[in-house]
């Protein structure tokens, strides 16, 4: 029997790549998105239910109509700076929105959810690589909004039997190698598309946020993971969850760190032109190094990154950008 997944936020960056991965694995895919930060043309692998995840009646109707075996939940705001400036919308959309979704799942008998979580829930790392046992101590409302949801999932699992997998991403990057979907944010805040734009347009310099970190070249180190590797992990996690209910948490990263200056060099190699850069101050609370341990995902899901070499990530991101240049 073909299984069905309801993907909230499936018109967004990671959500749309996961829709494609589920469809490729033989699942029926239904996207639920209000299109406030997603893209209608990214919904290509099944029907779109256009509604807000905070609308209990609409969400319940979607669950009753499509009867999903699994919900994959991506509907969230994800700008750290915005969360500091306007925390109310993060707790309302991310946290309260998830509560509304969980209550609709309870009411309709849907008992499996994948949750798009974040390494931002760890805060300043005490050690690297970071594994799932690392204490969670967020330093911004975005991270707190996601961490609170993880606690909710634990409680809903114990009280109501809702099985969940929380997938803590490190730095999602790259684009579909087939060119069907890619990364589009408005505004764009991610390092790779910004560095690519600085290589393509001299009037859009890339700002290095801090050059005095305690790292080999003084710039911050991050763990970039190709969005297709993330998507494949969701399919594996969904299949596991249907067989083994419970509350599970996995890091999704590569175990390899790339500094900002190394990233700029990789963009130069791919674009054939050095990005225009300027040097800025560190952001408050920015860790020097964020690198994941994915040992648990490898052990329990049989997953490891396959497309996350930094040059391949940038190649796919550059190809997407050149086909869809920003205004």
Features:
2 domains; alpha/beta; three-stranded mixed β-sheet; seven-stranded parallel β-sheet; 10 helices; 18% strand; 327 residues; globular; UDP-galactose 4-epimerase, domain 1; Rossmann fold
What does this molecule look like?
The protein is an alpha/beta fold and 327 residues long. The chain folds into two domains: 4-173 and 225-252, NAD(P)-binding Rossmann-like Domain (Rossmann fold); 191-223 and 255-323, UDP-galactose 4-epimerase, domain 1 (Alpha-Beta Complex). The protein has ten helices and 14 strands. The strands form four sheets. It has a seven-stranded parallel beta sheet with strand order 3-2-1-4-5-6-11, sandwiched between helices. The radius of gyration is 19 Å and the shape is globular. Its EC number is 5.1.3.2. GO terms for molecular function: UDP-glucose 4-epimerase activity. One of its GO terms (biological process) is galactose catabolic process via UDP-galactose, Leloir pathway.
Write the layout of secondary structure elements.
Elements: E1 4-8, H1 13-24, E2 28-33, E3 48-50, H2 56-66, E4 70-73, H3 80-85, H4 87-108, E5 112-118, H5 141-160, E6 163-169, E7 171-173, H6 191-200, E8 206-209, E9 221-222, E10 224-226, H7 227-243, E11 247-252, E12 258-259, H8 260-271, E13 277-280, E14 289-290, H9 295-301, H10 310-323
Helix pairs in contact: 1-7, 2-4, 4-5, 6-8, 6-10, 8-10
């Amino acid at each position: 029997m073909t299984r069905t997944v309801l993907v909230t936020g499936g018109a967004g960056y990671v959500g749309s790549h996961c829709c494609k991965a589920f469809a490729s694995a033989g699942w029926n895919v239904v996207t639920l998105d209000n299109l406030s930060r997603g893209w209608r043309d990214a919904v290509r692998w099944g029907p779109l239910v256009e509604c807000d995840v905070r609308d209990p009646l609409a969400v319940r109707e979607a669950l009753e109509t499509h009867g999903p075996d699994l919900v994959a939940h991506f509907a969230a705001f994800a700008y750290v700076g915005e969360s500091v400036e306007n925390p109310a919308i993060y707790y309302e959309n991310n946290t309260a929105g998830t509560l509304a979704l969980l209550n609709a799942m309870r009411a309709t008998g849907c008992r499996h959810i994948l949750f798009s979580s974040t390494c931002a829930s760890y805060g300043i790392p005490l050690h690297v690589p970071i594994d799932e046992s690392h204490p969670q101590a967020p330093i911004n409302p975005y991270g707190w909004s996601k961490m609170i949801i993880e606690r909710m999932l634990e409680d809903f699992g114990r009280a109501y039997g809702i099985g969940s997998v929380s997938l803590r991403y490190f730095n999602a990057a790259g684009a579909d190698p087939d060119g069907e979907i890619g990364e589009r944010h408005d505004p764009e805040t991610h390092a790779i598309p910004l560095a690519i734009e600085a290589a393509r347009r001299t009037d859009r310099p890339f700002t290095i946020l801090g050059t005095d970190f305690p790292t080999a070249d003084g710039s911050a180190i991050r763990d970039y993971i190709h969005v297709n590797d993330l998507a494949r992990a969701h399919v594996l996690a969904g299949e596991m969850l249907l067989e083994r209910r419970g509350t599970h948490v996995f890091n999704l990263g590569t175990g390899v760190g790339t500094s900002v200056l190394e990233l700029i060099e990789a963009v130069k190699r791919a674009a054939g032109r050095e990005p225009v850069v300027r040097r800025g101050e560190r952001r408050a609370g920015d860790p020097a190094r964020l690198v994941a341990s994915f040992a648990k995902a490898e052990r329990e899901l049989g997953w490891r990154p396959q497309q996350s070499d930094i040059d391949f990530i940038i190649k796919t991101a550059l190809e997407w950008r050149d086909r869809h240049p920003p205004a």
